[in-house]
Design a protein that fits this description.
134 residues; two-stranded antiparallel sheet; five-stranded mixed beta barrel
């Protein structure tokens, strides 16, 4: 008699320690979204706090690549890190988007600190906590 069973695979990788970017308790819901297909690139890492352009009609988002990226019109921030691992055919990546958070985003702990003034204007619902200067 032939036997069969379900097999589940799992893999994990560590990418270093996490750097906190959010103050307090964050509620990203209901802004769950799928990463725009153009940005689903094997090995890509989109870090928490990355500014994103969220499209409510398609429920997709596009992350900014750097502080000078003018191709994305941000209206929220990525809640968690999103890493694109091994890709299969038609794979997608999801993420949660934060559009309102009064307690704050530690903008100095992100790669977008140089764009803080512009981001504060474009995403007024998220308070930016800036590093103290001497």
């Amino acid at each position: 008699m032939k036997k069969s069973f379900n097999a589940y695979g799992q893999s994990a990788k560590n990418f270093g320690g996490s750097i906190p970017v959010w103050c307090g308790v964050v509620s990203p819901i209901p802004y769950g979204a799928v990463l725009d297909a153009e940005y689903v690139i094997e090995g890509a890492l989109y870090k928490a706090g990355t500014p994103v352009e969220y499209n409510a009609a398609t429920r997709t988002y596009k992350p900014m690549k750097n502080a000078e990226d003018a191709t994305v019109n941000p209206n929220g921030y990525l809640y968690n890190d999103v890493y694109i691992g091994n890709l299969g055919e038609n794979d997608a990546a999801t993420g949660a988007i934060v559009m309102n958070h009064a307690e704050g985003l530690l903008i100095g702990n992100t790669e977008f600190a140089d764009a803080a003034d512009t981001l504060a204007e474009k995403i007024p619902g998220v308070h930016l906590v800036r590093p103290m200067t001497a």
